[in-house]
Amino acid sequence: MNILIINAGSSSLKASLFSAKKEPILLSNVHIDGIGKDRCKYTFKSSEKNVGLYEKIPNHSTGTKFALELFLKFNAISKLSEIKAVGHRVVHGGEKYTKAIKIDEKVIKTIEKLCNLAPLHNPVNLEAIKASRKHIPKAKHIAIFDTSFHQTMPEKAYLYGLPYKLYKNEGIRRYGFHGTNHKYVIERTLKLLKTKKAKIVSCHLGNGSSITASIDGKSVDTSMGFTPLEGVIMGTRSGTLDPAITFHLQQNLKMKAKDVDRLLNHESGLLGLSEVSSDMREINEKGKKGDKQARLAMEILSYQIAKYCGAYAVAMKGLDAITFTGGLGEKAFYIRQQVVDYLEFLGFKLDKKKNESPRKSGFVEEEISPKRSKKRIFIIEANEAIQMIKEVSTLL
């Protein structure tokens, strides 16, 4: 049976085609990056083909159709009806969904209602869902929610200091995100530690970043909150700030709510602080040339990540391992070094050579702490597709 996994990001789309037997086998995948821009790069990879070209793809509906056409064009499948199930990543599921669920009109309406809580993601998740349901109508379509992994958090971790009725009536609480990948890398970290019991902090770092504390494989706290805006600074997102700043912007600078929303979600974070880019590679290059703001943006990010790690060590009454994942977490060795420098007093230390060595192409799962270190540090490549296919297969 062929299962397709679709992961729609704010400006990207990943579509991975698996043959689902006892163990899932990746047949081919499509990665489209830069959706909505004038120049959009796409890649198709299989055992027989490796193609990388450019195309103008205006939205995720078009991107989903384009990805399906590539599977046909390069003979990954002969017809779309060979795909029997499609797993979709959905960022925000609220409290309602704690595990994968078959998509119907009721589920779609719930995801739509939650769009205002994840404005960069839920709308594009829905575009991909609707397009794939249109083009593969006979397949079973299943939603896997980023928020579901964090449903094990206790009340003391997910409640805000607001009137309790706002939680009961409006669902205002910490939900957490990136749960699919946090769950995956935490399970892999436990295997590398050769135990089922450990206190782990997973650092998912990319254009969107979140830090999660886990005990024995279960999430107990996480940095993102009611929406994916809270937490450490990100590519264009501000991360946590004093809520009164929004009042100041509206009252003193006469900004409308939509303008404040755009500022905090699209014009802040690494982009706003560095005034260079939201891309850490470009910021690092500027920093190496002496750009003070670029260096400051990097220092602030590292400082904030380390603060969360330290806070979670207190919350869990201990910390056995830290795992870095996500594009920035896997590649930016200089950020990992700055983070761990803050945490040396907890016993964490990097093997400098391992940390700075270029990662080999393909699957990455590597320890970068010194041999025989009691406090372990890992890099584990993000692989939401594998975790998603596990959950789809379980539901089926």
The poorly predicted ranges are none
Radius of gyration: 21 Å
Overall domain count: 2
Number of helices: 15
CATH topology grouping of the largest domain: Nucleotidyltransferase, domain 5
Summarize model confidence as the mean pLDDT: 95
The proportion of strand residues reads 15-25%
Shape, per Cα inertia axes:
globular
Query: Fraction of residues in helices?
Result: 25-40%
**Sheet having the most strands:** 8 strands, mixed
How does CATH name the architecture of the largest domain?
2-Layer Sandwich
Q: Helix and strand succession?
A: EEEEEHEEHHEHHHEEEHHHHHEHHHEEH
CATH class call of the largest domain: Alpha Beta
Explain this structure to me?
- The protein has 396 residues and is of the alpha/beta class.
- The chain has two domains: 2-145, Nucleotidyltransferase, domain 5; 195-384, ATPase, nucleotide binding domain (Nucleotidyltransferase, domain 5, 2-Layer Sandwich), CATH 3.30.420.40.
- The protein is built from 15 helices and 14 strands.
- The protein has helices at 60-73, 105-113, 122-135, 155-158, 164-170, 179-193, 244-251, 257-266, 269-274, 280-288, 292-315, 326-331, 333-342, 352-356, 384-395; strands at 2-8, 12-20, 24-33, 40-46, 50-55, 83-90, 101-102, 140-145, 199-204, 210-215, 218-222, 321-325, 365-367, 376-380.
- An eight-stranded mixed sheet has the order 5-4-3-2-1-6-8-7, sandwiched between helices.
- A hairpin with a 3-residue loop joins β4 (40-46) and β5 (50-55).
- α6 (179-193) packs across α15 and α11 packs across α13 (333-342).
- It is globular and about 55 Å long.
- The N and C termini lie close together (11 Å).
